[in-house]
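Quick one, T. Sequence first:
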Amino acid sequence: MKNEIIIIFFIAILGAVVAVNLMSGTVYKLSAFEVELAVQISGNNFTQVNFPPIGKVVANTHSYPLNLKATVLNVNPDRLRSLVKQIEDKEEFINVIERRGRDILQFFILRTLLIAFMGGVVGVFMLGRREFKYLLVGGLIGLILLVILFAGTYSTYNLDRFDDPNYKGMLSAAPWMIGLIEEGLNNIDQLGKEMAKITTNISNLFTEVEALKTLREVSGQIKVLHVSDIHNNPVALDIVEKAINSFDVDLIIDSGDISDYGTPLEAKLLERIDNLKIPYLFVPGNHDSPIIIEKMKSFDNVIVLEAGTVKVKGLTVTGLADPASITKNIKPPKVDMIKEYQDGLKELLGKLATAPDLVVIHNILIATPVVGKVPVLLHGHDHEFKIREEKRTVIADAGTTGAAGIRGLQSENGIPYTLNLLHFNNKDGIQLKAIDTITIYSRESSFILKRKGISKEEQLISN
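C-alpha cells:
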C-alpha cells in the first residue's frame, strides 16, 4: 500500500509538470499589446521577457524552480496611436495598466493551478487508478505542488534583479535600449501632451501656409517633399499627409531611419504609408533593417532605393542605402565600410552618362567624394536641419521629421519636427529653384517657414 501511494504521488507530480509545461501558455490583451504568459516547472528560476525577433531579457529573479515567460506577440498600431494621444496623466495611465496587469496575472495563476490539478488527475488516470478518490488525490497533489512553487516564487521574487539582466539576441548589442524606454515611460505624459498638441496644430499650421500666395508662385513644376529620421513617430506621418495636401507634392523622398530598431512591430506602424497617393522613394538608414526594407517594398507606392538609379516624376535619382541597413545592427558604419560605400556610390554615378538630378544618402560621410559632381544631395542621420552649398552642390539635411522619436523626450528644450520642400523647374532641364524649410516646435506651439533660393534665404513667416 505504501509503495502504491508513493507511485501515485510521483505520477501525479509528473502529470502536473507535463501539463503545466505544455499548456500554460496563454495570450492576453493588455491595452495595445498582445502578450503571451507562460510558466515552466524546471531547474531554471528566472524571468524571461521576449521581444521576437530582436531578442530577450532574462533575470534571475527568484529562488524556486519556475521559469516565468512573457512574450510580446503583437502591437495594434491604431490602438497605440489613439492611446498615446489620449494620455493626459502619466500616473493614472500607469495605474490603469497595473490594474489590468494584476487582473491578467491573477487569471493566469488560477488557470495554471487548474491545469496542474487536471495534470495530476490525468497522470493517475493513465496509471490505471480510476476511482474517484485516487483521481481527486492526484489532482490535489498537482495543485498543491504548484501552489507551493507560486508561493515560494512570490516570497523570494526580487524585481531589482532586472537592474542587471542578461540580454540575448539583438538586445545584447543594445542594452541602452532599456534605459531609453525607461526614459520614455518617465516622460510618457509629456509625450502624450506633445503629440496631442502638434496634431491639433497641424491643421492650423498648414491653413496659414496655404494662405501665403507666394508659395504657389514659385517657378517650379516638380515639388519634392524631403523627410528623414522619422523614428516611428506617428505625428511625422500626420505632418507628411498635411504637407502633401497643402503643397500639391509630386514625390516624397525619405533619406532613412524610418524606424528605431528595425523590428516587425515597428514595421506595422508604417502601413499608413501605403495609403499615400504619391510615389514614396525610400533610402534605408542605419536604424532600418531587412525587415523594414521588405515591408516598405510591399507598398505599391514605395520605391526602395538600396543601390541604383531611378527616374520618377521626371527626376533622375541615385541612392545608396546605409551599410547597417542590411543587418540588424543599428550602429553607424566604421571607417573601412564608409570607404567601401564611397567607392560604391562613385561607381553608381560612373555608370551614368550625365549626373543625376539628385543623390540621396543617409549618412553624409558616404557622399563626401561626390560633392561638386552632382547638383543636389539629400541626407539625414545628423538630426541637424540645415541647407548649404559646397562646390556648386546644394546639400540639404532634413533633420528629423519625427523629432528624433523617443529620443526627443530626453532633450530639455525638445527637438522640433523638420522637413524640406524642394521646387524644381523642368522647362529648360531639371533645375532646383527654391527650398521651403519647415520647422515645427510642438512645445511652444509654433513654427518657422523659410525659403532658400540659389543665393539667398528669405524668411517668409515666423509664428
